[in-house]
Amino acid sequence: MEVYLDNNATTMVDPKVFEQMKPFFCETYGNPNSLHRFGAGTHPKMMEALDYLYSGINADDEDDIIITSNATESINTVIKGVWVDEILNGNKNHIITSEVEHPAVTAACKFLESQGVSVTYLPVNEAGVLEAQTVKQFIKEDTALVSIMWANNETGKLFPIEEIGQICKEAGVLFHSDATQAIGKVEVDVQKANVDFISFSAHKFHGPKGVGGTYMRNGVKLTPLLHGGEQMGGKRAGTVDVASMVGMGYAMHLATTPMALAYEDNHVRKLRDKLEDAILELPETVVIGGKENRTPNTTLISIRGVEGESMLWDLNQKGIGASTGSACASEDLEANPVMNAFGSDSELAHTGVRFSLSRFNTEEQIDYAIEVIVNAVKRLRNLSSSYAYAPETHKSGL
């Protein structure tokens, strides 16, 4: 049996989404910016896709949603655009983010630091969440942007976006949230959240890879990252990948209906909890960040005495896909930075394994995964020179 439990890295394209995309490869293939019928023929489905995107995040008709190649491009568009508009061409020189952001945010901020921008990296609390009042404490007169993720890609922890958004609004500071791991798992409402920007990627909610979006509140100025054409109203140059845009829109539609979100919150959560509870029955296992306030599909579990990479090897041999954290840093053998942010000791920082489910997982798959995981833990602990198997030391939770 093959069981895919790495859906925070990417998801399979929903077959219904794929069917919507097919005509735009060999039938309705015109450039949407061309004036002839071949180009114009793409417009109805592109407009439908935009309607789905706006509805999925409750964007206002006057707001902008810019189609990009992925969330990484979207994030760089926002952070570097604000750098140009508010810092290079303004009188501000400060950005606030957290210590547990996706590498796309962290790397963009590090680049700005190399250009002389002051960046504050705020710590999370013991539950793995950035407290809104911490953000408020660090906002200064020259703060140009606050960029805080909606949901953590490794722990699934949800951040207090609405509260942070209100704080930024009252302070007159632009607020960006990386919503990549939230859309399709929990409600993402840009009106309630008081965000100026969000970033997202279709392949995280059963859409195609290679397409994402940037939401931009009406009235907010943002210098484009890419120049060279008038596509997207001049906000993002380059011929639009119509098939991918249509696929992302329909994937958003399927993932964000009340029924779909209820399925995530009930069925997917139930399967995640079954898997998690079975692992926690083993001695010295712990859910990083605790069980509360998470997306319903994600768990990051530390298994003392079992190196994460070794566990992934055993699971892969049995047809199970999982990860040790962000896929964008999976080749880096350094200790997991999120676990370091929690203050984990040097041994535990290498033991985290992330399991992330989707609506396509079944109970039969979870039962099989539990059996394989339990056997793998026992085998690897028996091989470990630093772990003494002692059932009486059983721990669970934080």
UniProtKB/TrEMBL annotation:
SUPFAM superfamilies: PLP-dependent transferases (SSF53383)
InterPro entries referenced in this protein's UniProt entry, alphabetically: Aminotrans_V_dom, Cys_deSase_NifS_proteobacteria, Cysteine_dSase, PyrdxlP-dep_Trfase, PyrdxlP-dep_Trfase_major, PyrdxlP-dep_Trfase_small
UniProt keyword terms in alphabetical order: 2Fe-2S, Iron, Iron-sulfur, Metal-binding, Pyridoxal phosphate, Transferase
Domain (Aminotransferase class V): residue spans on this chain: 3-368
Gene Ontology biological-process entries: cysteine metabolic process
Names of the cofactor(s): pyridoxal 5'-phosphate
Reactions it catalyzes: (sulfur carrier)-H + L-cysteine = (sulfur carrier)-SH + L-alanine
Molecular function via GO: 2 iron, 2 sulfur cluster binding; cysteine desulfurase activity; metal ion binding
The keyword Amino-acid biosynthesis is assigned to this record: no
Pfam family, one: Aminotran_5
Keyword flag Iron-sulfur: yes
Entry's EC annotation: 2.8.1.7
Protein task: Catalyzes the removal of elemental sulfur atoms from cysteine to produce alanine. Seems to participate in the biosynthesis of the nitrogenase metalloclusters by providing the inorganic sulfur required for the Fe-S core formation.
Family annotation (NCBIfam families): nifS_epsilon
Family per similarity comment: Belongs to the class-V pyridoxal-phosphate-dependent aminotransferase family. NifS/IscS subfamily.
Record's protein name: cysteine desulfurase
Gene: nifS
